[in-house]
Amino acid sequence: MNSTELRSAFSLAFVYVLRMLGLFMVMPVIAISAKTYPDYSAFLVGLAIGGYGLTQALLQIPMGVLSDKIGRKPVIAGGLVIFAIGSLVAATADSLTWVVVGRFLQGAGAIAGAIMALAGDLSRESQRPKVMAIIGISIGFSFYIALLLGPIIASRFGLSGIFLMTGVLACLCVFLVLFVVPNAKNVAPKGDTLPVIQDLKILFTHPQLARLNISVLLLHMLITLLFVQIPVFLVNLNWPLDKHWQAYSVVLVVSVVGLIGFMAIAKKYKNAVLSISVAGLALVFTLMIFSQQSIIYLLVLVCLFFTCFNYLEANFPAMVSNISPAGKKGSAMGIYASFQFFGAFMGGVLSGSIGELLGIQWVFGLASILCCIWLLLIRGLQATNRLKRYTLKTTTQITSMALQQLSELEGVVDITVVPNEQVMYLKAEQDFDIQQARLVLNLKD
Question: Which domains are delineated in the chain?
Answer without folding.
Answer: 3-378 (1.20.1250.20), 388-441 (3.30.70.100)
